[in-house]
Each structure stands twice: as C-alpha cells, then as structure tokens.
Amino acid sequence: MIKTRKHLELLAPAKNADFGIEAINHGADAVYIGGPAFGARAKAPNTLEDIARLVKHARRFHAEIFVALNTIFHDNELEAAQKLTHQLYEIGVDALIIQDMGLLELDLPPIQLHASTQTDIRTVEKAAFLDQVGFSQIVLARELDLKTVKKIADATSANLEYFIHGALCVAFSGQCYISHAHTGRSANRGECSQECRLPFTLEDQKGRIIGKDKHYLSMKDNDQSANLRALIDAGVSSFKIEGRYKDLPYVKNATAHYRQLLDEILHDRPELAKSSHGNCTYTFNPQPEKTFNRSATDYFANGRQADIGAFDTPKFSGELLGKVTKVGKDFIEVETPTQLHNGDGVCFFDVHKELVGLRINTVDGKKLYPNEMPADIRNNTIVYRNRDHSFMRLLEKDSAQRKIRLNMRFFETSDGFGLEAIDETGINVTYLTHAEKQVAQTPDKAIHSLKENLSKLGSTDFVVNTIEIATTQTWFVPASIANALRREAIDGLQIARNKSYARPPRRMAAEPPAIYPEDTLTYLANVYNQKARQFYAKHGVNLIAKAYEANKELGEVPVMITKHCLRFSHGLCPKEAKGVIGVQGTVTAEPMTLISGNDRFTLKFDCKPCEMHVMGKIRKPVIQMGPPQTVQFFNKRP
Question: For residues 230 and 430, what is the distance between their CA atoms, to the nearest angstrom?
C-alpha cells in the first residue's frame, strides 16, 4: 500500500484578480477572493470575468481558487446566491467559503465547501459537526491554541485551515455585533465599521480611570512564523494569510515570506508535499515587518500572552529607528544604526499621542530633511520608519518568477530524433521529427549547442532541471530541429498539464444527519433566513433564535465576545492574583467600563472559559441594509 503524502497549502488573499495572480507568482498554493456579492469584505468585490482570469492563471501551476460567500443571507437573497454558486462553478472555481448554513439546503453545484472563520469553530464538537455535514475544509478560530487544534484534528477528517499572518479581529469571528448595533453596518453582512480600532478610556468598577485614549480593542498583527512546524504537527494543512483589503506589496511580501518558510519544512520532511506546482525566485528578501503590520504576536497559539494589544495605535508605525537628537529649521537629526534612503517614510507620536507621518526628501548622514517640518517634534522623540523606499521600489516591479522544473531526454529514432519532456510531477509528453543524421565533427560543441537550444524556455512556465542525451553517438542537430522539438514539447506539456488537473470533489454529508452539539441556538448562531432554520432543525436543534441583525427584541447583550481580556492585560486577572477567590471557590471578576465619546460599554468577564464580553444595545434608529448592490453582476458570464 502506497502511503499518501500530506499536502500543505499556503493560502493567500486577493483584493482583485491582479493581486491574486501575483500571489500565485510569489508562491501561493491557493488564493481566496471575493465574488460579485455576499463576501465578508464588501469593499472588495470582483466580477465573474476577473475571477475566471485568475482561475486560468492558477491552473498553470495547479493552484486553487476559493471564493468567499461568507455573509449571512436575507431570504430574498438566497435565489441569487444559489445562482451565483453555479456561475462560480462554471468558471472553474475550486471551493466556496461560506458562513450561512442555509446554503447547504439549496441546490448547489458539486463544488467543495469550506466553513468560514465566521462560523466560530473553537470547540472539538463544533468542528466535528461541520466535518460531518459536508465541509471539506474548516477555518479554525484564530484564538485556538495548539493543544485544541490537535484535539480537533484527531476528531475530524476535513482539512484544517489556520490564520498565520495579518490583522486579528479582537472578537471571535462571527460573534461581533458592535458595528451593526451602532451603524446598521453588520460585520456578518460584510460591512464592519471597525469600531474596535477606536480609542477608548478604561474605568474600573469604582469609576477610577485606568487608561485614557488607548486603542484597547485593537490587537497586534498575527505572525505564526515560529509556529509552522508545531501547527503541522497539530494537524493544520492550510496556512492562511489575512488581507483581502491589503495592498499589493503586502501580499507579495507575506506570501514570499511564508513560501520560503514552508519550503524549508518541505525540504526537511519528505513525508510532506506542496499542494501546487512550481518553485519561486524573488528579486527581494521577504521581510514581513516592512509592509503593513501593527507589530507581531502569535496570539493564543501557545496559550495566553501578556502583550497582544496594539493599544497605542491601530496604524502601521513600522521599525524603530531611534531618538531625535536635534531639530533644525528644515531638518531633524536622528541617532540610528539603520541606513535610511531618500523617499523613506518615518513617523512619531505627537503630544496628543497621535501617530504623525513624514516623507523624507533627502537623507544627509544623520540629518533627515522632510517634505514638511512637523510642528511639535522635539529632542528625544522616538522615530520609526514605516516605509522603506528602496524595499518598496523592488515590490512595485516584477518581483518573482514561478517555474515548473522539468527533465528532458533527447533520443534518436530510425529516421530522426525525439524529445521527451517530464515535469516535476511526472506528467510527460514525447515528440518525434524526421531528420537526416550527420555525425558531429566536434562532439563537445555539438552537445553543448543542443543542450543550449533545448534549454531556451524563456517566458514559459518551465525551467530545465536535467537534459539527457540518449543517442548511440554524437549527432549534429541543427538549431531549427532542436528548437522545433522544444516548442512542441512545451506546448504539449502545458496542454497535458491542463487536462490532468481535476477539481477537488464535493464532500457528501453523513447519513443519517449529524446532530448539532446543542439543542438551543441564541442570536450568536447568526440564523438569518428560513433555510438556515431548516438546516439546524434537521440536525436536531429545537429552539432557534433570530440573528442579531433581525432580532429587535434584544436589549443589552454581548455585542462582542473576545478572548482578549483587559483585566489580564492590566495585571488584574483573578486567576493570576492570589487571594481573589469568590464564594464556593468560583473565580469572579468585577466589571469594567470602556468609554468612547458618549458611549459606555460594560465589560463583563466570564473567567471559566477566559472570555471578555462587551455589553451593548442597538442604537435607534438603525439603518436597515437591503440586498447588496452587486447582485446586478449575477447575470454576466465570462
């Protein structure tokens, strides 16, 4: 019995098709992108024509394209959503990323389904249920530690997807309603207003100010670079980079960084394999700290950490340079070991604790001449660089090549010559040509010339690994014959590769239907339409509440549930402090209050599961959202 190698997938984001193409060129095994509508990033839609163009490029390397349809649906949107799933299947999309279980009750094409992070997968029981109802891949909650990931892997057979880089939502995905409560813009409908990135004042129960004008709900960015091997051992096979709103340099830089790290692991562990084809070379040295980030944390992968918040600013401050040693009329002098360049961007925190950015026109030793002198910079101000101009120039150009290695075997026939080309996966083609044979007068020169002509693969997707000359003697082979054989072999190999690609099949749900782990669902289950209600009823749920966006009867409830704890981050955690034990040994924690303008949010702490609940209620009036405007694209076909 042949043991199947475990395939690892590097999954990159794409704001649009061009970004997705570059992600593949820089090493992504798969790309996730928004469709014409119903994606959880409403400001990043794409037409069917553009997605088809991305699919075509991905096929060259047997990379996969996933489309996010991960909002919750109005009843009157289900027909359009169903139609869109068929259109996406027709243009070659490999999988749909979904949140709304109502879709599983529709007539869908035979396309793979991935459970979005919005489905809030943070227990073994929830993961096992989704594994049984037809999901081929499940996107685990960002908050999960390695031990829990391993337990889920042991209890499921679906591929496990884990966020390894990029922005962190402070709330459990799918469990944040503060945006809808305040603006009518629902995160579960793709319209998050990101109120978590605002500054707040924090008070204790007695009204004492613990901190003022801090971004207490803003997290540092995720970076699991050091945990990739541990994640593989825990059972993760898909490694996801966040960022469908991010710019192209970020996508290139982050994708190349993790491609190199995963390739090192693949080299060390032959039992693992890459899930797509080709190898990448770069014109730059990937450095994720040089494109947008809020500094790094591995979040809860190794348990609760003390320093996960980006409380000072939700913006990109960049790398620390040093302190200002002198302020001149049109320059600042900075003591730093870092080599700066004309065009660099630097920044500092002003007296109001706001991040102020400067563009440096000229660098003269330690003197930096900005395009405009700031009003309140002074000696000892700490300065950061958030744009390395020379690095960004590299990323703005063509910065990667992806090539598929192949072996060639040139041989003789009774009436001419032949060429066999075999790619790195074993796909092969052979082409023959009639030719008169002439013995080479200078054998070494003839062999060198033949190999040189066969190696001229130029802008194709291939690069020669080895060339075997399998002839009885050294023949003189004219360049025209060698070139014609090479062109035919490469064209034929690409056709053969396209034919060999098979989309992953849809996974069938278990029969009889799996039973959901709970028999009652609150608004936290995000049930927004009748089909979703039918789904859960079929799977044993008796009481099903309406989604927050449809439930006008709700008063003050948790509008955000998060593993991030402000008591812990301020050294006030009852579990960490001695002697703070309540009645009958139950751990308790006093509430706190977050204040933003006229808004006051009570923070309640559920210490048993280690969660913080941000309490709130819907403002009146709430703007009611209608169906997405991009439905008009549904009838377009590529």
Answer: 43
